[in-house]
Amino acid sequence: MQGDDDHDHMAVSYSHGPIPIPTTQGPETDVGLAASGDRLAFERLYRAHVDRVFSLCARMVADRTRAEELTQDVFVRAWEKLHLFRGESSFGTWIHRLAVNVVLNARKTEGRRRAWVDEDEDGETIERTPGLPHQPGDRMDLEAAIAKLPPGARRVFTLYDIEGYSHEEIAETLGVTTGATKAQLHRARMLLREALTR
Amino acid sequence: MTHETMTCDTFTELLGATMEGDLDPSQVAAVEAHAAGCAGCAALRSDLERISAEASQLPVLSPSRDLWQGIAERIDAKVLPMVAPSAASGGAHVVRRPWLRQALMAAGLVLVTASVTWFAARQVNEGPVSRQVAGTERATIPVQVPVQAVDSSAPATGSGDAATEVAADNRGGTRPAVTTPTSEFTRGSSSRATVAEGPRPVTRPNPTGERAPTAQLASATEMPQAAREVEAVYGSEIQRLHDIMAQRKSELDPATVKVIEDNLAIIDSAIVQSRRAIARDPNSGFLMEQLNSVLDRKVGLLRTAAMLPARS
């Protein structure tokens, strides 16, 4: 991967691996413009993709406030790395993968964070939110239940069942085996079922 | 494995692989057969499949506020110029100049050590009583810049510094400016010999021994802003020292004065050369350091001279 040493190619240059600029108008045109330093074009890209990026962040970290911070981090990083985008996938796919990396890297630097959900990766149950009224028969909705999964299971479940990544992609991103991701996914589903049927 | 031997625990263990399609045909058959005969396990598989399907249909979430402003502020801080350096523009582009900070810091030291100048000025103002007269010996001036003899036939001497460069520029026989009756000290406070200002003529002896003015010096305004900033820092200090020397000239031994002026002329010539070089190559950190060094020497020489005891 190229380093950050080609800032002199803020204008699209075909001498160092061109960023394709389609002749038709649309999001991919904005990618080319944004790569050239066009902030307005980048803002259009932001507005087109912010919700999906935020959704990913919010579900992976189970914290909307933190997810908003991470979303900003994702787009700032996208701006910095846009000159590396070669159009081999759609921009949405590219920034989505970027978001996954940003979230995972943030977790590494932050370390383990205490939460009201048992952070123990071996947790067998999803705890209910302290303070929330609980009546027999109350069922937690799926979104709330996902937020209360153990972090490892939540990450895999979000990436696989919600975002549609393959086990191979998840394993490569997380640095684990597909066997580990499949085990986490099954565990997540089992925990969610338990929470949703209690 | 047959459905008769499969337990619910085994079914649960294989359920994940079943949903991933990782089982071989015989295992799939056994799982399906068990589910057909066990309502609990069938419900479990159904629930897990529904959870997976519902998850894929979850709506996209939106942040509670527009995040663009925060993003814009951060990327604005990292905006780089879109115009690449152009040869036609003479290299006028945004370039990192890490040496500029060092140059300005060095110039700043001049201000920090300006107490020397203040003390010298106080000596002048308080009259000869406060001055210490060290015997009848002529004061020597420890200078780093070698004194160039007036004799134009003398070979150039130097230590690789600006004086040597000046001498090298004068291999045609001319020498840098030397003491003349119109030395800087006699010009007094009006002297602003090497402060960053407009061009001034400098006399140099030609091969015939007569002195002729050189071509106009490179205008200080032709130098880049960085060089002008550095010289501005030195300028006021140098001016104050010149004023002091002008007031004290009559107190000092004439031979001492001549040595001072000869050395100043050499330094001034080196400053001129540095300015010209910087005007041609404004982004050279080396040349900026050279200018800084020469200006430092001038200040140092003037301060030393300003503190000399009066002749007895």
Please sum up the structure shown.
The complex is a heterodimer of chains A (198) and B (312). Chain A has 198 residues and is mainly alpha-helical.
Please list the strands of the largest sheet of chain B in the order they lie side by side: 1-2
**Quick one: overall form of chain B?**
rod-shaped
Mean pLDDT of chain B: 68
Number of strands of chain A: 0
Low-confidence stretches of chain B: 87-95, 128-220
Oligomer: heterodimer
Mean pLDDT of chain A equals 79
Rg of chain B over CA atoms, rounded to whole Å, is: 40 Å
The residue ranges of chain A in which pLDDT falls below 50 over 5 or more consecutive positions are 1-24, 114-120, 128-138
Largest sheet of chain B: 2 strands, antiparallel
Give me the secondary-structure category of chain B. mainly alpha
Largest interface: A-B, 45 and 36 residues
The fraction of residues in strands of chain B falls at under 5%
Order of helices and strands of chain B: HHHHHHHHEEHHH
Number of strands of chain B: 2
Measured distance between first and last alpha carbons of chain A: 49 Å
Instruction: Enumerate how many helices of chain A there are, as a single number.
Output: 8
Please state the structural category of chain A. Answer: mainly alpha
**Could you tell me the strand content of chain A as a percent range?**
under 5%
- Helical residues, percent of chain A: 55-70%
Give the overall silhouette of chain A. elongated
